[in-house]
Write a structure and sequence with these properties.
Blueprint lengths: L2 E5 L9 E5 L9 H10 L1 H8 L9 E5 L7 E5 L11 H18 L4 E4 L11 H18 L3 E6 L9 H16 L7 H4 L11 H5 L9 H9 L21 H11 L9 H8 L3 H12 L3 H7 L4 H9 L7 H10 L4 H10 L9 H11 L5 H10 L8
Parallel strand pairs: 1-6, 2-4, 2-5, 5-6
Antiparallel strand pairs: 3-4
Helix pairs in contact: 3-4, 5-16, 8-9, 9-10, 12-14, 14-15
The structure holds adenosine-5'-diphosphate (ADP).
Amino acid sequence: MPFRIVSGDITKLHVDAIVNAANTSLLGGGGVDGAIHRAAGPRLLEECRGLHGCRTGEAKVTLGYDLPAKYVIHTVGPIWQGGRHGEEELLRSAYRNSLLLAFEKHCESVAFPMISAGVYGYPKEQALEVAVSTIRAFLEENEMDVILVIFDRESFRFDVRLYSELSGYIRNIYDDGKGPGNFLGDVARSVAFGGVSGSRRSLFSRSRKPKSSECARAVSEEPVEDAEMDEAVSLDDAPPMMNIKAEAMSCASMPGSTPGGLAEALANLDESFSQALLRMIDARGMKDSECYKKANIDRKLFSKIRSDVFYRPSKQTVLAFAVALELDLSETEEFLKKAGFALSHSNKADVIVEYFIENKNYDIYRINEALFAFDQNLLGA
Ligand code: ADP
């Protein structure tokens, strides 16, 4: 997942680089700085002495010594003085310069604490906004895994207005115990697909048939799942057997079966997830990179999906692409079905995603902040 928010201790992360929210002396301090120096050992301080400090908004790099991370990128965030002293731009620079340094060092993964959000007093909600928007702008141009580490879960401040609106929405749907059931049934969509109009309907109407060789492989091999699926992905999300049936049906329409028969009709309906995804990207007039970035999906994983017609995604991956493609709820449900999943009102994460789709808010970073705030698995892979 190119961007993720996790809770925990940054010094424990196995990434190429961790970022230290240091002070201008670079000679150690409290908070995350103290924790990093303690975990890295005294050689870190020795190397830091040779750096002769760092200005606010800038960044310098050292080795990680006893840390699991190879490098420590030391940056200095601004001290909050009310917001009229260039704090925001300085905080953006701290993130940007750290990312550029990680890039120069060929890091594939880098983890950040919430710079300035501790002793330096930057308001937490605003600090989060600056962190996420700056990282996002960088990831639009570059490939890297960037992790934002929240040490103190309780102090995670997500947009207060949105949080309370979402809480109300969840209370109405999830907590009121409509219970497990079909999502579309619950919200009483007028029509599942017949009601989808014009060009949007076309997103699900055509099918690219798999080649017979692809079918042979699908029945002889174990289906592939998201290679880079989050370890936090719950067992609920393990792809069910449905797809195997769908694949078998697709194969029934391959050369050798009766042309024009029922099996062929079903095969058209059973276009695979990968086929549907690629066709919808075309239908939307999107570039592949635009789509996988908007979905918070790793480029390598996207290539895998592209080259494997029977790729078996996780539910989070399917939802991430649904968001990137700006599908409505009916379309999202149909898309999930292709991978053997469904939305459920008994699943809090599903209800949160529903809220965003209903409100036509397709900002995956925002959705992931909300999912994190409610302790749910994030979208993407
Ligand atoms: P600053 O002086 O820039 O505010 P602090 O170290 O006081 O730096 O706090 C920055 C952020 O780092 C805070 O959100 C704090 O909760 C967090 N933090 C403290 N220790 C750790 C740690 N071990 N791992 C990750 N984050 C941490």
